[in-house]
Design a protein that fits this description.
Structural class: alpha/beta
Strand order of the largest sheet: 2-1-3-4-5
CATH superfamily: Response regulator
Radius of gyration: 15 Å
CATH architecture: 3-Layer(aba) Sandwich
Number of helices: 5
Distance between the termini: 12 Å
CATH topology: Rossmann fold
Shape: globular
Order of helices and strands: EHEHEHEHEH
Largest sheet: 5 strands, parallel
Helix content: 40-55%
Number of domains: 1
CATH class: Alpha Beta
Length: 156
């Protein structure tokens, strides 16, 4: 049997790390997850800058009790490390490089988008302006990434 097995949505919760420095966007995403994802427990972990994101991820791989998140939503413009620097750090870490990472950005700057994909982002999505847009975004993420896609295990 492959170590990449289907996530059992009825049994196992999904851990999502959201790296975002804008409190308004954090509130919108949290509300959107509560509204849109009703078929499984989704634990949303929020950190507000790149340093905290790296600390969270490093602690999760070094811990005997915690494991890395199943999925990362990453803002591009952050204090300390920006999103592309976090992507590079994750890619360079053999215990984290398998993490599915979706960049959420308000930028349509081609240079930044290319840097994200060069840093192994799985996708780049534009941040919606309101709760309705965030609900739609979370429904799409849930339908594809958390329901249809086979996520890698958090440990092998």
């Amino acid at each position: 049997m492959s170590p990449f097995t289907k996530q059992s949505s009825a049994v196992e919760p999904i851990d999502v790390l959201f790296v975002e420095d804008n409190p308004h966007d954090v509130t919108l995403l949290r509300d959107a997850f509560e509204s849109a994802v009703t078929n499984r427990e989704t634990r949303l972990h929020v950190v507000t800058d790149g340093s905290d994101a790296m600390s969270f991820l490093c602690r999760s791989v070094e811990s005997d009790t915690d494991s890395p998140p199943n999925f990362v939503l990453l803002d591009l413009n952050l204090p300390s490390y920006d999103g592309t620097e976090i992507l590079e750090t994750i890619t360079d870490n053999p215990q984290l490089r398998w993490l599915p990472i979706v960049v959420l950005t308000g930028s349509d700057d081609t240079y930044n988008l290319v840097r994200c994909y060069e840093g192994d982002a799985n996708a780049c999505l534009t941040k919606p302006p309101d709760l309705e847009g965030f609900v739609s975004l979370v429904e799409t993420i849930d339908r594809f990434w958390l329901t249809q896609a086979t996520l890698p295990p958090t440990s092998i």
